[in-house]
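Supplementary Methods, section 5.1.

A reviewer requested that the exact input to the structure prediction be made available. We therefore reproduce it here, unchanged from the version used in the analyses.
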Amino acid sequence: MLNRITGNHKYMFWILLIVLLLLMPSILFVVRGKTAAILETFGRPHKTAVFPGLHVKLPWPITSIVARVNLQIQEIHADVSVKTSDNAFMTLPVKVQYRASDDGVGAVKAHYELEAPEKQITSYVLNNVRQTASGMEMTDLYANRDNVEQQVQEALSEQFARFGYIIENVLVDEPQPSPEVRDAFNQVIASKRLMEAARNEAEAQRIKLVGAAQAEAESKKLQGEGMAQMREAIARGLEEAMRTMQNAGLSTEQSIQLLSDTNRLDTITSAAAHGNTIILDAGQNRDLAGVAAMLESVK
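The structure derived from this sequence is encoded token-by-token as follows.
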């Protein structure tokens, strides 16, 4: 009897060992890094996900692994067509970096709440970017892309936090205007450059004219000073000549008459030297015969 019982125990032991070995792969499981495993027991989801490491669960079909959620940062790229408040049509290249939540409850939501996370996040991005850009002018859109990124990120973070997703970054690249808007903008810039060139040319002309006027004024000033000095020298010369003639015994009237005659004769001689010149001397106490004789002598 004992031998029979002992033999039965041996059979049971081997049977249990074989069953245990067969069930071992469904009891022990490994979760790799940056991954969360989603478990269900008889179809009922567990409240929290299982994170990287070696874990034990009830064998299949009691408990099964229904999904593994990727916890790495992922990126969505979308070109968003927008219309600004000043009726300019632009294309905004937008990139959204997101990941599933790395806490147990959030990872479960990330698996069950959204059927196609990438498509649904893209739809929200398109809607939010259009709504934000529609209240801005084209120039503001170029200068304040950071505001667009911040507003869109805040809206998306609040929206997708309840779905178990974290929005890490929203990046807006340089806006791309339509060909019509780009051509019009280039024309505006070109016209501004032409206006600046015209203003610069006018300023250069003004500077040139002012410089010429200043130079002319300086020249006339110097000429005036030269003439004043010349008159002063002539006056000193006349004064010295008068003094010399008076010392020689001539009266003041005779001295003045002699100087006048000398100056007149010098002027007539200088003018006649140019040729083809008719000179009429209507000086005091002169008659026509005297004038004719003077002209004849000059010839």
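The first helix runs from residue 2 to 27. These observations are discussed further in the main text.
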